[in-house]
Amino acid sequence: MKFPIAAFLLPLVVAGCAANSGVAPLGSDTFVVSRQAATGFSGSGTLKGEALQEAGGYCTGQGKQLLVTNTKEVGPPYVMGNFPKAEVEFMCLAAGDPRLSPPPLDRRQLR
Questions:
Q1: Are the CB atoms for 67 and 101 separated by under 8 Å?
Q2: pLDDT tens-digit series, residues 70-108
Q3: Out of 44, 60, 67, 79, which could bridge 84 as a Cys pair, Cβ 3.0 to 4.6 Å?
């Protein structure tokens, strides 16, 4: 039984495309953006930086400030489409929002 070469190459071509989610809402003022590499030969550090830049630009475009609430990175093994991926969850908050201020430092934890 012969298979057309396109039937073999199509999944490889589709798997080779990088995936960028764009900004997606998660809830009120809460969003997520992700980046995935097209191969397993690149690290997730650049992807995370790109996702953070997009998140910051999105908030700036709304006249708000970025507050990163969570980040995730997919690690090896990079096989079967499990390529490096970075995801950033964030909020866009108005300047002066108390959630933008770091929590007070507990000096007891420094000992």
A1: no
A2: 999 877 776 776 788 899 999 999 999 999 998 887 777
A3: 44
Taking alpha carbons only, the member of 89, 78, 87, 8 closest to residue 38 is 78
pLDDT in tens, 55-72: 999 999 999 999 999 999
* Paired residues of 92 in beta bridges: 66
Buried b (16+ CB within 10 A) or exposed e, 4-43: eeeeeeeeeeeeeeeeeeebeeeeebebbbbbbbeeeeee
Query: pTM for the complete prediction?
Result: 0.71
Q: For tokens 């298979």, what's the residue?
A: 3
HEC per residue, the chain: CCCCHHHHHHHHHHHCCCEECCCEEEECCEEEEEEECCCCCCCCHHHHHHHHHHHHHHHHHCCCEEEEEEEEEECCCCCCCCCCEEEEEEEEECCCCHHHCCCCCCHHHHC
For CA atoms 90, 94, 98, 100, the dihedral sign is positive
